[in-house]
Amino acid sequence: MMFSLTPAIDRLTSFLTVSHARVCAFLLLLSLAAFLPGFSTLQPLDRDEPRFAQASKQMLETGDFVDIRFQDEARHKKPVGIYWLQSAAVKAGEALGVPQARTQIWLYRIPSLFGATATVLLTYWALLAFLARRYALLGASLMAAAVLLGVEARIAKTDAVLAACAVASMGALARAWLDWTRSLAFVPDRRNWLVFWGATAIGLLIKGPIVPMVWGLAILVLSASQRSFRWLKPLRFGPGLLLCLVVALPWFVAIMLKTGGSFFADSVGQDMLGKVAEGQEKHWGPPGFYLLVFFATYWPAAAFAAMAVPFAWVRRKEPQILFLIAWIVPSWLVFEAVPTKLPHYVLPLYPAITALLLLAMINDGIDRYRRGAVATACLVLIVPLALMGVILVGNWKLDQTLPWLALPGFALVLLVAAGVIAAFRRLDLEGALWRCVLASLLLTASVYPFAIESLRSLKLSPRLAEAARAACPDPAVQTLGYREPSLVFLTGTNLAMAASGQQAADFLGQPGCRVAFVEKRFADEFQAALANQPVKPRLFTTIRGFNLNGGRPLEIAVFVREPG
User: Fold this and answer.
1) How confident is the model at residue 286 (pLDDT cuts 50, 70, 90)?
2) Which among 109, 316, 350, 376 would be 20 to 30 A from 481, CA to CA?
3) Is the pLDDT assigned to residue 185 strictly greater than 80?
4) How many angstroms separate the CA atoms of 160 and 117, rounded?
5) SS (H, E, C) 314-351
6) What average pLDDT does the chain have?
């Protein structure tokens, strides 16, 4: 059965590569298949996602689309672009009649879904500068299959959109470089500079200097190799910089005037430079962190990308290889040097790694007989096996159950992963990579809608918000102890944060419909404070679960004071 896939793959790729339209339609469908499972059912993921979503929700509530706030706190870490996109998606949802649109996290994820899908399509476009249509299709499919891009497609943050901007700008830069070195079979479109600068301008509004950093470091490496910057002339830096100013400057001026310059002090001085100085919010990692997690985040193609490294080194002076190295290595080193490390930081570099992998494949640069090659290929099987083990143990320990509906999918993943190794052993590397895509789709369809969905213990905030809505209509809500941003997003901007049991008791002593969440470690203090209250609230329910951020089980009592 494993061997029968190869003719089907050949027929499919031959059919699709007849036109760019067919390829793009296939990649669009593949992206939806890769990114939609679990898209609407996955709970808000603390802490970053609900912070972004809540800030966007507050823009809709206040009508202030310049300043960025989380409750009463200024959120001056990233520019405004992603908040505008999320607000627009939610506004569209409201117009279409989506119930309780402002607390539907999936609406806030729509820009990330679009960004991830655009990353796949733009990877195809970028890789056409290096590869024939057949292999550019395969490369874009591998990006759709990459674990990290699939994760970012489901999280309402900046990184999927940022990746799309980075790929667009680097695809345009590649065309300018390869035309200069006469390594490109066609002359770039005269509007290539608009792609480069349009993507840069959007990137500035999404995450500040990251996109210019990636292409800026690449330009320095490539220009040093040529001892000239003349190859950049077709990119029209004068009009391009003017375009960036027109797109990005108005908001930067508006936020400077509104905050008196504090936005720049917070975003540059505290957030960006703070990450350079030390690991922020417990996100410290040692040098080599990204290399270590690469085999999981770029699964299922990571093992084969590692085998392409000797090929890239031997042919590093060739224009195509040099460009890809300049895209990857300088930015990767910067990310490794910064103490604050999160896996998604290197996502904009993954399309270049994909291109190197495929160039190595078509030029016989991946040696199946090299010592350790087959063992490295076995990572395609080992990584999902480890993930499945974590999921099964987590389900059993936290909820004393197993994700039965996910188990058939898990078995198919392992079967196809074994087929990947078998194809590699018989020197069918292209077939192995297409099987990687299939394995990723099967894993996605098993993990997100079934395995993760069964982990009820992790859904503390959704269960608390549901309890508050069930307790009494439109309650005022306060929380003592448990303070995750997802709770603010799901219960409302006015969620009060109690600092003591006395404050929680006083809150419930006021008239009206009121709900208080009291974490167990504050229970005695809270009960003592209730002794002085003339009207005693009732215990509505107790919710038990596991807080991933604290890494500990929690027990939270829900107390209700009914109106009247």
Assistant:
1) confident
2) 109
3) no
4) 9
5) HCCCCHHHHHHHHHHHHHHHHHHHCCECCHHHHHHHHH
6) 94
Q: What is the pLDDT of residues 112-138, one digit of tens each?
A: 999 999 999 999 999 999 999 999 999
The shares of helix, strand and coil residues in the chain, as percent rounded to the nearest 5, are 65, 5, 25
Residue 268 pLDDT > 80: no
Q: Residue 518 and residue 469: Cα distance in Å, rounded?
A: 16
On whether the pTM is more than 0.90, the answer is yes
What is the per-residue pLDDT across 233-267, written as a single tens digit (0 to 9) for each? 999 999 999 999 999 999 999 999 998 878 877 77
Task: Say if CB 26 and CB 16 are below 8 A apart.
Answer: yes
Query: Cα separation of 143 and 150, whole Å?
Result: 9
SS (H, E, C) 193-255: HHHHHHHHHHHHHHHCCHHHHHHHHHHHHHHHHHCCCHHHHHHCHHHHHHHHHHHHHHHHHHH
Is the pLDDT assigned to residue 298 strictly greater than 50?
Answer: yes
End-to-end CA distance of the chain: 70
**Structure tokens, 553:** 């089980």
Strand order across the 538-547 sheet = 496-498, 476-480, 514-519, 552-561, 538-547
Give 212-232 pLDDT, tens digit per residue: 999 999 999 999 999 999 999
Contact 152, 107 (CB under 8 A): no
Q: Does the pLDDT at position 273 exceed 60?
A: no
Domain 459-561: assigned CATH number: 3.40.190
Sequence-separated (6 or more) residues with CB below 8 Å from residue 429: 304, 361, 366, 368, 423
Q: Decide if pLDDT at 189 tops 90.
A: no
Cα separation, 482 vs 518, in Å, equals 8
- 370: cis peptide before it, omega within 30°? no
Beta bridge partners of 554: 545
Helix (H, G, I), strand (E, B) or coil at 542: strand
CA distance 162 to 324: 19
Q: What is the CA radius of gyration of the chain?
A: 26
Q: Does the pLDDT of residue 2 top 50, yes or no?
A: no
d(CA 477, CA 489): 12
Contact 444, 437 (CB under 8 A): no
In SS3 terms, 389-423 reads as HHHHHHHHHHHCCCCHHHHHHHHHHHHHHHHHHHH
Give the model's confidence band at 275: pLDDT under 50 very low, under 70 low, under 90 confident, else very high: low
Which pLDDT belongs to residue 416?
A: 97
Structure tokens at 549: 């951020």
Contact 27, 124 (CB under 8 A): yes
* Whole-number Å distance between alpha carbons of 131 and 143: 15
CA neighbours within 13 Å on the CB side: how many for 522?
22
Number of residues assigned to the chain: 564
Strand partners, 496: 478
Q: How far apart are CA 521 and CA 502, in angstroms?
A: 14
d(CA 306, CA 93): 43
